[in-house]
Amino acid sequence: MTKALATDALPSYAQILDAAARIAPHARVTPVMRSAALDALCGAELHFKCENLQRGGAFKFRGASNAVWSLTDAQAAAGVVTHSSGNHGTALALAAVTRGIPAHVVVPHGAVQAKVDAIERAGAILHRCAPTQAAREAMADDIQQATGAVLVHPYANTQVMAGQGTAALELLQQVSGLDALITPVGGGGLASATAIAAHAIDPSIALFGAEPLGADDAQRSLAQGQRVTTLVPDTLCDGLRALIGETNLDALRTHHVDVIAVSDEESIAAMQLLWSELKLVVEVSSATVLAAILKQPARFAGRRVGVVLTGGNVDLQSLPWNAG
Amino acid sequence: MTKALATDALPSYAQILDAAARIAPHARVTPVMRSAALDALCGAELHFKCENLQRGGAFKFRGASNAVWSLTDAQAAAGVVTHSSGNHGTALALAAVTRGIPAHVVVPHGAVQAKVDAIERAGAILHRCAPTQAAREAMADDIQQATGAVLVHPYANTQVMAGQGTAALELLQQVSGLDALITPVGGGGLASATAIAAHAIDPSIALFGAEPLGADDAQRSLAQGQRVTTLVPDTLCDGLRALIGETNLDALRTHHVDVIAVSDEESIAAMQLLWSELKLVVEVSSATVLAAILKQPARFAGRRVGVVLTGGNVDLQSLPWNAG
User: Fold this and answer.
1) Which of A213, B30, B56, B299 has the highest Cβ tally under 10 A?
2) What pLDDT does residue B133 have?
3) Which CATH number fits domain B13-59+157-309: 3.40.50.1100, 2.102.10.10, 1.10.10.60, 3.60.10.10?
4) Least Cα separation, residue A192 to chain B (angstroms)
5) Are A292 and A182 in contact (CB under 8 A)?
6) A-chain residues near B280 (CB < 8 A)
7) In CATH, what class is B61-151?
8) pTM as predicted
9) Does residue A202 register a pLDDT over 90?
10) A322 and B321 in contact by Cβ < 8 A?
11) Hey, of B98, B279, B309, B321, which one would you mutate to test binding to chain A, going by the most A CBs within 10 A of its CB?
12) Ranges assigned E (strand) in A26-86
């Protein structure tokens, strides 16, 4: 791991500002959308930050492109490597293309086929492995050794997290006077960086996270005062199966991020509402945020809420409400 | 029909400009989106005008709100009436709400349930009738007689057409230097008004229409030099089953609108591409335009093309690629 790009230290607000400037030539400024029907349903004023419209169809491009463009020319020459079953793999491949370097992506067997196809279409060199964390890390290590490529971890990477923080930064520049922000919580990179950016701008903003009940390690870890590491994720939300990292957990605690866990059924219902009312294709992991607002409406009532829709990469052939 | 709002005369460019000013407080300025992947696939530079993000989920709100706000207070008092199995019904109901007047909508049995639900949710007074043109018109007549409501025809209405023309007007203000424009063709209100607006701004813009092969009366009428009236529509594109109106046909001829007919299979494939690449929910009728470009790429190659995505009201429970 000697060639790892960075430690998993949390980014500072200054690093998030640097990231915003660094990725500006590559990333899209995504729109913020509203829906009178969803506002009425939730009793709140919802401002949806549409990261499903980001390059690669997810906010992950922000972190990946910040990491890729933070490398020196010498570091970048041999390319980058990551392990990802989803949007980070695509994002890293697209970011590598913008710099003209190769991207190796280790993909576990059993990953969502639509996402694997997207990773390949984005230009990555695919490496398949067994579906365990150990196998993923071992293969990524091997590739580093063999090629000299730099590891860009999906969330335990300061530059990746700094990039993810630019979504909230941008949202707060687009919409003034937000009372609250909510993001999904998986590995916790987005939630942590969002907290750092938001509280640097306005310490009074209330912060929320949404996670699947079948991967509710962040909520449990906060409740128990220590990181839950034994949970085996069981959720349709393929983007949120990662367990939260230790430093990310610290950030959620420091910034009083209130995590709400929702069932997959609640997320699927929320996903349909987002498709019907916003006319946007969002993935089920992204819909956890609306599901959380609908589940705990009193926490959001009458407030001006920023809602980060993280991605829109779905397999149209197997939509969750048609399954079973 | 003495209380009809207007004749079916084509709108002038001045009327389209008036409509834009009249509906500005009510309608949304919809975004224009791009996709590098779709550009590469088509060999053209495509600028998608996202009317699926218009109020009510379709461009129809432009025409309906222009018609409703063109009425005098005395005319408006008793409300409005129309017959529609789809987006025009919702649009008229929403427009009526903005003016605080009732909207009666005659809906034939057999209409898409998601659209009927939307018409009702928008606040319309629903009247069901047999699924024939005669039954629709007879019931709308009866309602006019009984209530004094003003008929707002879905497309054979000058103010409605003037409102529809504002989509192209707005697109040409948002994107400069377009070489071509393409819209779907049903009754022809949108296609006619688009032609009038576009050629007033730049007479060199090439104009295209897309229609389903199962309702290809516009293409046949242009080829035969007279309006085909005997065709029985057979297409999944529920928004494009209306036969083209006589004056609209004249407009297509005058403005050299080149109509391309596409199969439902081609439209369904294009619909999936739009969902996957733009992350937008668009209905199958809207996807005819991309299907037409993919079918006749030589007509668009290397050009800067404005593509009007007309609506996004779909029944998520029965998507066409899951049928059969």
Assistant:
1) B56
2) 80
3) 3.40.50.1100
4) 26
5) yes
6) 279-281
7) alpha beta
8) 0.93
9) yes
10) no
11) B279
12) 32-33, 45-50, 80-83
